[in-house]
Design a protein that fits this description.
The chain has 429 residues and is of the alpha/beta class. The protein has one domain: TIM Barrel. 48% of the residues lie in helices and 10% in strands. The strands form three sheets. It has a seven-stranded parallel β-sheet with strand order 3-5-6-8-10-11-12. The protein has a three-stranded parallel β-sheet with strand order 1-2-4, covered by helices on one side. A two-stranded antiparallel sheet has the order 7-9. Strand 11, helix 9 and strand 12 form a beta-alpha-beta unit. Helix 3 crosses helix 10 and helix 8 packs parallel to helix 9. The longest helix has 28 residues. The radius of gyration is 22 Å and the shape is globular. The two termini are 38 Å apart. The model has no long low-confidence stretch (mean pLDDT 97). The structure holds alpha-D-psicofuranose (PSV) and manganese (II) ion. The site of manganese (II) ion has 4 residues, from loops. The site of alpha-D-psicofuranose (PSV) has 9 residues, from loops.
Length: 429
């Protein structure tokens, strides 16, 4: 396997950091031991944790107004895979890539799978795209896709999703994530009930094409591109659709797809209660679907989400196999750096959630001791778990300080010499 960053560079860096890391890890280990926690057991849990990265996240995103590309950005799936390999090589926590079609179309998927494996990567959920027209497409999605009035557009959207399943089978995926932009911009534009009926009918055709071990992850989103109503707008619509479709249909929670201040951790608990929690798109937001870096705005919310996931893991209902993925748009940073930083923020929250004294939390809940219940969470949240993450990474061959090694490697500068420039142009619209 030939990985993009020099193994010697990583080893040299880790050697220089080794004494400080041992010191920090030892100190944290003694602190945790006083609370009856074995730091090595936590480290082993963290080492087994992973989160997928989105192929589209490897490029600079943009807003509706503009995009500011950087030299050395990837322009095709092969270059995106190479960048994703950098993220995983340094962090050792992102071994899978989630592809989006038709953006990542190639002629030979078996070869693509091999190419990824050669970079230490596998494939996660395949994402369909019926929110955008493609050149030469027979039917427009301007008025919707799975819920469109036009039967031709609906058929085309169903066939595209089935094609994504076929591609995913070749890549080794077992999940199809379906997000549709379908909705309206004006009151009265469409009938709410009939558009949902059309969506459900079309979605059931996709569902019928799922292999036995596959899941269909329904991703809801409150608004955008539709600004008055959206067909699968919230977790309520999502779970109703998933229940109607069948056991292989689950709900996917993108953290940016809710109304401001919505209690997302409670949604997580609700979805799990009904066996419908399928997975996550991690990102952060201040105002809407901002697609900011995970944990950059509200790290406490991310922790509370993982706290619910830890509860769910301890009480699995109808199986507990959430798919974890990043879904961000990096408008002003190097996407590799943003995903390194986000993967770390996500793994930190996972680690902190596993430090919660669940016995104390549950006892306080039963005794209506509000302050101690809150403190059980607060105690875990305020622990700096970075030595645990660093130790797990180093033991797996990753870098102690991922961003420092990435910068020292000058990877982006090298790619700027090799890769063709991305044109200026519009943003995501
Ligand atoms: C929609 O905003 C979304 O979150 C969906 O996951 C899409 O597939 C993704 O962004 C990429 O545009
Ligand atoms: Mn998403």
């Amino acid at each position: 396997m030939t990985l993009p960053i020099s193994a010697d560079l990583i080893a040299e860096h880790n050697a220089a950091q080794a004494a400080a890391l041992e010191d920090d890890y030892g100190a944290l280990g003694r602190k945790l031991a006083r609370a009856g926690i074995d730091i090595n057991a936590v480290k082993d849990r963290v080492a087994a944790f992973s989160v997928a990265v989105p192929s589209w996240g490897a490029g600079r995103g943009g807003t509706r107004f503009a995009k500011f590309p950087i030299p050395g950005e990837p322009t095709n799936i092969h270059e995106k895979l190479e960048d994703c390999a950098v993220i995983n090589q340094l962090s050792r926590v992102t071994p899978r890539v989630s592809p989006h079609f038709p953006w990542d179309k190639v002629s030979d998927y078996a070869a693509l799978r091999e190419e990824a494996a050669g970079l230490g990567l596998g494939f996660d959920a395949v994402n369909s795209n019926t929110f955008q027209d493609q050149p030469g497409q027979a039917h427009t999605y301007a008025n919707g896709s799975l819920s469109a009035q036009d039967p031709g557009a609906r058929r085309q959207a169903v066939e595209h999703n089935i094609e994504c399943i076929e591609i995913g089978r070749k890549l080794g995926s077992t999940d199809l994530t379906v997000w549709v932009g379908d909705g309206t911009n004006f009151p009265g534009q469409q009938d709410f009930a009939r558009s949902l009926d059309r969506y459900l009918e079309a979605a059931s055709e996709i569902y019928a094409a799922l292999p036995d071990d596959w899941r269909m992850l329904l991703e809801h989103k409150m608004f955008e591109p539709a600004f008055y109503s959206t067909v699968i707008s919230d977790w309520g619509s999502s779970i109703l659709a998933a229940q109607e479709l069948g056991p292989k249909a689950k709900c996917l929670v993108d953290l940016g797809h809710h109304a401001p201040n919505v209690n997302i951790e409670q949604i997580v608990a609700r979805l799990h209660r009904f066996g419908k929690l399928g997975g996550f798109h991690f990102n952060d937001s201040k105002y809407g679907d901002d697609d900011l870096d995970s944990g950059s705005i509200n790290p406490h919310q991310l922790f509370l989400v993982f706290n619910e996931l830890a509860e769910a893991e301890a009480n699995p209902r109808d199986g507990f196999r959430p798919s974890y993925m990043i879904d961000q748009s990096h408008n002003v940073t190097d996407p590799i750096e943003s995903m390194l930083s986000s993967a770390e923020a996500i793994a930190q929250c996972y680690a902190k959630a596993s430090l919660v004294d669940r016995g104390a939390l549950h006892a306080a809940q039963e005794a209506n001791d509000t302050m101690m219940a809150f403190q059980a969470l607060r105690r875990a949240y305020t622990i700096d778990v970075s030595p645990i993450l660093a130790k797990a990474r180093v033991e797996a061959g990753g870098a102690c300080d991922v961003l420092a090694v990435y910068r020292q490697s000058r990877y982006r500068d090298r790619k700027a010499q090799e890769r063709r420039a991305v044109g200026l142009g519009a943003g995501i619209v």
